[in-house]
Structure prediction request, 649 residues.
Amino acid sequence: MAARNGLPKIHTVSLKKQDGICHDDSAPTVKAQTIDELHSLQKKKSAPTTPIDGTLSSFASLSEDERQKQQLQSISASLASLTRETGPRVVKGDPARKADTPKAASHDIHHHFTPTINVSDSSLKFTHVLYNLSPAELYEQAIKYERGSFITSSGALATLSGAKTGRAPRDKRVVKDATTEKELWWGKGSPNIEMDEQTFLVNRERAVDYLNSLDKVFVNDQFLNWDPQNRVKVRIVSARAYHSLFMHNMCIRPTPEELENFGTPDFTIYNAGQFPCNRYTHYMTSSTSIDLNLGRMEMVILGTQYAGEMKKGLFSVMHYLMPKRQILSLHSGSNMGKDGDVALFFGLSGTGKTTLSTDHNRYLIGDDEHCWSDTGVSNIEGGCYAKCIDLSREKEPDIWNAIKFGTVLENVVFEEHSREVDYSDKSVTENTRASYPIEYIPNAKIPCFGPHPKNVILLSCDAFGVLPPVSKLNLAQTMYHFISGYTALVAGTVEGVKEPTATFSACFGAAFIMLHPTKYAAMLAEKMQKHGATGWLVNTGWSGGSYGSGNRIKLPYTRKIIDAIHSGSLLKANYKKTEVFGLDIPMEIEGVPSQILDPVNTWADKKGFKDTLLKLGGLFKNNFETFTNYKIGEDNKLTEEILAAGPNF
Prediction:
């Protein structure tokens, strides 16, 4: 039978439901009259939360509107111009959504705050605050508004840090006032380059004016230090979603309850890195300036978008604040065995700190920054900042697997269509990095703190080939080598001969310490003595000759050494002393050839060994001259003990 248009008529057959062939997929229509209304149904509002412990704070008794208003007042105060004594008109939300901007004449329910003093053009506009956004929201902001932001094949966000792809230590300044002049380490060897208060305020005003001129700013309220008794509240104000997501990963993320009761921050960062400093300003030597004011507890960033400046700036602050509480701040990795034995790992770049502290048989407390208090060791950070150059699944499976949604990939190169990252490509920089939350590491210990350390391991990659693979240190030796912070890097080729170059970085992190190195060393010795920790010097460098003639100590041997330290078996070994450095070296370690334990045995040229050993000893002595005039301990006894623990020839 044909239909009216001449086509065959379609016959439909009613099927029983139990036949399972035809399903009714129809559903009620959506409760929306317009497409905008439909979109509004897609996102639900977060319900207000209350503190877990049931205690009522000053915020808890407030209504939601009042709490939001106080929060915005706090943010406006952070962005206040010191000369105009007022902050901007702030409102929560994305300016791209017109509904988020309240109209001055209307009586609406949007959460915004207008200061009472309005004497500048900034009072004519609202600054939109994107407050503690989630990674998903920050992805949207980065991809939509920041050129060079892409989602890679693994789900990570690839970003560019602009012209600067690393820290600029020569452009970092610290305000020298009556207090810091006495407390901080100044002069030869110190990372602290002075500036005065007035110059800081000029740069602060420049940064705040730039941030207030924008339609929107990102604000992160977060914590430092997993020890709840000694955590520090930090606020980061930035102009880029990349910076906000980076700090979301690197600082400790507050719970909704903690965020409700955050209050006033202890420290604030103003990241106006897209805007340069004025080179005619006093103390400025380039268009970049990273300024730290410990009196105001503020940091200003101008002229660099490299996110690592924020991370290390906060680390410098902790190096100042924590020792005031008798807490030792440390540039180290830390892990813990299943029996609760904690180890600290110190080491400069290339020594194997990350590789050796990441152990599948142990829990990771943290990979870079820690505090040692009266209750134990705690991680300062909430994330990891790993190098990506030449990264592979085989070499670093944990880091490889951590590069997923939520991770920031800095300055990496990826294939245009597949978005697969080529970690060997150095087109942008060799300093490619990944920033991810510490929970992305499978064996991370959450919360990130543990008991007092049992072992303190100082790592050095000795390219001269004269330090033993492992030495047991007494307290004075531990302090000497901790202050020295030695490793050796391989220099370039000169007429076909490669020469190693000694590198010393006090406390294995000279760029970030604020006080004199001997103060940190004295605290380390005191805590080691009090809690019975043992010091070890582990050489992951060369054996049988210097770089070019000898061979790198095999990683499996170093792992066996570290295992013997963790298990306690190395404490029971028989020891003998070495020449010049006077180090105690074990006679045997299970799984390690005994002949390599004393480096002189591995050198065919014995005279060459002695000459190289004396050369390295001389380099240590020359480096330590910077610290010899600093008196510590009663009657200067501690200084004399430390000096006596160095090379003797």
Notes: DSSP finds 15 helices and 33 strands in the chain.
